[in-house]
Amino acid sequence: VQLQASGGGLVQAGASLRLSCAASGRTSGTLLMAWFRRSPGRDREFVATFSQTGGYTYYADSVKGRFTIFRDDAKNTVYLRMIGLKPEDTAVYYCAVTSRNTATMSTSLYDYWGQGTLVTVSS
After folding, report:
1. 106-109 — which CB contacts under 8 Å span 24+ positions?
2. Within the chain, how many helices (H) and strands (E) appear?
3. What CA–CA distances, in Å, run from 106 to 44, 45, 47, 48, 62?
4. Which pLDDT tens digit goes with each residue over 42-98?
5. Of 36, 113, 107, 111, the residue nearest 67 (C-alpha)
6. Cα separation of 71 and 57, whole Å?
């Protein structure tokens, strides 16, 4: 599975962005995808994911109410809509796929990673 993330950029605080992550390769079935991020000087952290059926979404407390994860299964693409961006959201955002069939927030349980897209939020 190959993942291509895009949509990052330099924005001011309060702005919005939408990240995309397109999956290709061995993508039969519904992929369980998630977003993570790594801020300068910090470990990679979970941002958002959804259940296998897509009926439930899970978010890090720091982004709840501001970020929305959604997907287009026909395009094997997952999105992250971000509103009300804050300087502390500055990070490289990664999409990832796990071969497991249950949602997880653990980075170690994801098998495939995209190259990341940089989001920089100025104050």
Report:
1. 106/46, 107/36, 107/44, 107/46
2. 0, 11
3. 10, 8, 11, 11, 16
4. 999 999 998 877 789 999 999 999 999 999 888 889 999 999 999 999 999 999 999
5. 36
6. 11
Calpha distance 37→3 (Å, rounded): 15
- Residue 69 to residue 19: CA distance in whole angstroms: 9
Q: Which residue has the tokens 């991020």?
A: 37
Indicate the residue type of 110: Y
Place of tokens 């804050």: 86
pLDDT (0 to 100) of residue 117 = 97
Torsion from C-alpha of 90, 55, 70, 49, nearest 10 degrees: 30
Q: Which residues contact 10 (CB under 8 A, 6 or more apart)?
A: 120, 122
